[in-house]
Amino acid sequence: MGSTQTIKPLFSYRPFWAKKLGTAPVLPMSRLEMDALGWDSCDIIIVTGDAYVDHPSFGMAIIGRLLETQGFRVGIIAQPDWDSADSFKVLGKPNLFFGITAGNMDSMVNRYTSDRKVRSDDAYTPGGEGGKRPDRSVLVYAQRTREAFKGVPVVIGGIEASLRRIAHYDYWSDKVRRSILPDSKADMLLYGNAERAVVELAHRLAAGEDIKSIIDIRGTAFMRTGLPADWAVIDSTDIDKPGKIQAEPDPYQMRPACDQKSDKSGVDTSGVGGLKVEVPIIPTREKTFIRLPSFEQVKAEKVLYAHTSRVFHLETNPGNARVLVQRHGNRDVWLNPPPIPLSTEELDPLYAFPYIRRPHPAYGKQKNPAWEMIRFSINIMRGCFGGCTFCSITEHEGRIIQSRSEESIVKEVETIRDEVPEFTGFISDLGGPTANMYRLLCKDKTIEESCRRLSCVYPKICKNLGTNHQPLIDLYRRIRNIKGVKKVVVASGLRYDLAIESPEYVKELVTHHVGGYLKIAPEHTEDGPLSKMMKPGIGSYDRFKQLFDRYSKQAGKEQYLIPYFIAAHPGTTDKDMLNLALWLKKNKFRPDQVQAFLPTPMAVASAMYHTGYNPLARIRRNSKQVHSVRGLNERRLHKAFLRFHDPKNWPLLREALHKMGRSDLIGRGPDALVPDESYREKNQAGRSKSANQFTPARTTHTRVEGKHRRRRR
After folding, report:
1. Which of 3.40.50.300, 3.40.1110.10, 3.90.78.10, 3.30.750.210 is the CATH number of 344-572?
2. Which residue of 176, 518, 576, 636 lies most exposed, with the fewest beta carbons within 10 A?
3. Which residues pair with 359 in a beta bridge?
4. What is the C-alpha end-to-end distance of the chain, expressed in Å?
């Protein structure tokens, strides 16, 4: 299943018969809309945890419009009431399948903070109202669709399903959970950007194939009992002790493959001088699967969980990834290799569909915060080869950059200018997962397909990686010169270690595309946590800041960098956070908001957090342990170091500094991190201590004969 195989182009399928019904102004959310379109039924119904916004920044819109161009009738059930199956019946029974997604965000990340506190709002809901989707939305929605219409295939996808495709650590319940496949009882899981998989699946189901028989689509996972006999297996159920597998063929072997002959036993019978030489037939990589430790094993042994994480992440390159198999009880989760990335010619049309570029009219004048934020932004690429261990972008979108053409991007800007009434000439972002990876690829396709590195830029930039920013510079210049465009801001995450490879790019960015402030993410200053994040040292930030300041001055602009940092990441000690706080003070940064590490399913850093092992290195039972910040008090302390300037954090920091032997940092001098305890603080502490000497039972006050009397409860 290597990427050199013939891949059917995304738009080469013969359209389904319903293509003749035309294009919907907006995908229907009710039977009335279906009737207006002349539909008696939907072929595919997408159930999503987000409000339906018909805009290419929303997954349900891209997938829905893509399937529409293939000739299928697609309906949307957005944020249904999950208390019963009734809300899942509003569009009737789909002819082909239900597609289930939690939305653009994982439902647990959407609802809970890194301290497991419930958020009060939801940016993907009209009015920003919270509580409009259930926890673990994919599981709940899949159950309700089965209740609504038994026997209809259920296909799950999106980021929530992608990040739970094998057994995974769940931060919110603090335990290892099964793959989402057996828990949801879905027929198939599509992971990553699933355009290829969903189009092929839809056409094959429309042609009459049973979904249970469709087992060869890349980017899919499914349950199966029993494994094919004609496949070779690499047993990786123990730590770095794979079972026997026939050796890879010698790439330098001189004898041409066409000379080999074999008898029915599968033994090579060709030889020299008539001698019979027994050489086993080598199974191809495409017919080899890796057996991972089972769910029961990774749940019981943390070291096996870390080992599984390492093996999993080494099998994510579409060019060389093998099938992964993980036992759950008496069945297996079968995980096909990742999808082949879309070419520019396939990616461009996804952004040219007839979107209305706003929320569905059914929402009326209710505002959708997520749409308000991105409605004038342009996504120019996909993927990220940074490999940051705490980030889910690579695990979901892959490491290979997929870029749109300049013409496609220009056309979208012109569409916004001409068709969106609220447009005032301001493009709020021109970027993607990473602002400056546009058209950056490996210099050699063969090397790219065989590479197993988790990052192209750590510990240093790979010599085979192209770092030419000229195509992006040309794009910036062309976009800002479009008639009607007044300002183009780059607000996506900037990879500054790449940017310093092209000072001309930094100059272009700083001179024309920074709106006063530029947010970047060094994440930390200390080598310990940075090595666990796979992020560059702070020296790269310093070099970028020098260029930023120089070109801002040349442009006559007063502009500032806003660095982001992570507290409580695995591998971070109290001393690391203290050193970061001192760096912030020295550089006169006072962060208003701080980010605490949130372990998301399947991320490498999450494996470190859960197991104490580092999957970036070979796993052994006696491997050096990685410190994880797990306790609430320690997490609060690490966040307090980032906000050392906040008086609310001073008591906690003073206590910590005393314990660390750094009382010299308490005081009024220029080197002090926090001031001495003030007279007012002492008085407040004294009153609190006095009040705590007697803690009465909970009381109420009742009026008796004009006086107050305390009554015990």
Report:
1. 3.30.750.210
2. 636
3. 53
4. 71
